[in-house]
UniProtKB/TrEMBL annotation:
The protein's name in its UniProt record: 2-octaprenylphenol hydroxylase
Domain FAD-binding: 5-334
Top-level EC class as recorded in UniProt: oxidoreductase
GO biological process: ubiquinone biosynthetic process
Amino acid sequence: MNQTLDVLVVGGGLVGASLTLALLQQGFHTGLIEAKKAQPIEPVDFSRPGFDHRVFAISRASERIFRALGVWEAMCAQRVSPYQAMQVWESFGEIGFDHQDIGQENLGHIIELQVMQYALQQRQQDFPQLHGYFETKVSHLQQHEDYLAVHLNTGEVLTTRLLVGADGGDSQIRKLAGISCDIQPYGHHALVASIETALPHQATARQRFLPSGPLAFLPLTQPHTSSIVWSLPPEQAAAMQALDKPAFHQALEQAFNSRLGSVLESSELFAFPLRRRHAKPYVKPRIALVGDAVRSIHPLAGQGVNMGLLDAASLLDVIVQAQTKHRDIGALETLQHYQRWRKGENLKILLAMDGFKNLFGNSWLPLRWARNIGMRLTDATYPLKNKLMQQAMGLEGDLPRLAR
């Protein structure tokens, strides 16, 4: 049986890789299990056209976490897209946000998944002491008083003081730990693609609420190129995918009020189902969940990965404090501090997203008028509007050390 690890992270995505780096920086004896094959991620090839269809809106709090991990400069050296403004509207009601209103250089960044993965993987190479297990899955767990035995599908058994499930919405660790999860389909599929428009996006993120679901245009580094996220009922999403390009472009222009003029070109259109998930509880003795293993939300506010990174940074704070005080980092009492910290924050955002989806998904005419008037009133109330923006950017609240 191997020497006992301090922490074993399962899942090498953005949240799992970020947590692993943070643990290594703090001197924890750390292991990482990843189901996929170990292979180098290539940097962005600027000689080839097109963008990764998987992009994320990265908040200021997440930027600070990446800076603390030493990966932000590597991301910026490839391709990140800062945005200075945001427009949100339905019909006659609209809210506009501008970076100058809150004294910030920008409101956030749109970054491709490939860019972030490459930077994180390169940084991991600075820590040869990392124990990596690739093309590997956890088959079952055995609880002991002072450690957890983690049995792998390879027949190997690892021992760890703390096991962290960062393995996504269908988390195997969550299932093996016997942690229940409330799962509710949103009744939407998200369509994603990159598109080229006649008018420049002017570094502005835009979102329109439609009766069928929200449509977002996220600005990329090229002035006429945006990434779209269009939430639609499954049958409508399938119908959009079945259209030829001219017909799809016309439908997209119409849905977006032609705010960026004609749609000139589009990449391949991808679709994935949207589900609301929330684990109950987040922790058990020697086991903690982070990221999508804890909760999945509707992408209308682009907060999913930002919430996951805050999970990771908060868990790090809790176990560093426990280690400093010579307490057991895997004890349930320790891990419940993390649960109390993040559960309240997660519930606020989950409920807010549910509220937005239900509010704007109702086509009753008096309610449509009321919410559009409400948007106009909010737009005219600068203190409220700026407060909303600061919270979304991660500039307020009970933030972990890496995000401050």
